[in-house]
Design goal:
- InterPro entries: DUF6111 (IPR046093).
- It holds the Pfam family DUF6111.
- Keywords: Membrane, Transmembrane, Transmembrane helix.
- The chain crosses the membrane at residues 9-29, 35-61.
- With 85 residues, the protein is mainly alpha-helical.
- It has one domain.
- The protein contains 2 helices and 4 strands; from the N terminus they run ααββββ.
- The protein has helices at 2-25, 38-61; strands at residues 69-70, 73-75, 78-80, 83-84.
- Strands 1-4 form a two-stranded antiparallel ribbon.
- A hairpin with a 2-residue loop joins strand 2 and strand 3 (78-80).
- Helix 1 (2-25) packs across helix 2.
- The protein starts with a helix and ends with a strand.
Length: 85
Amino acid sequence: MWRPIIETILLFSAPFALYAVFHLAQMRWPFVAEFWHRGVVSTLTIAGLLAAVGGMLLLALGPRHQGAYIPAHVENGRLVPGRFE
């Protein structure tokens, strides 16, 4: 249940983290207010929203397994992994 929520949050926050890493790579302290002015935050927010929506669409429209799911079970003393048939 939590997986889609956490994935969406991570996709949204990725541009902000990359921007902070960019400033760290340039040997600057990334948490100074002058680096986070309105234009930068707006651009990062739009990029984060696009990444989150795109990720949700890719997860929703991705390949799905067809058929019935057979859970993992024990046959003749051996564990048989779950599979789709």
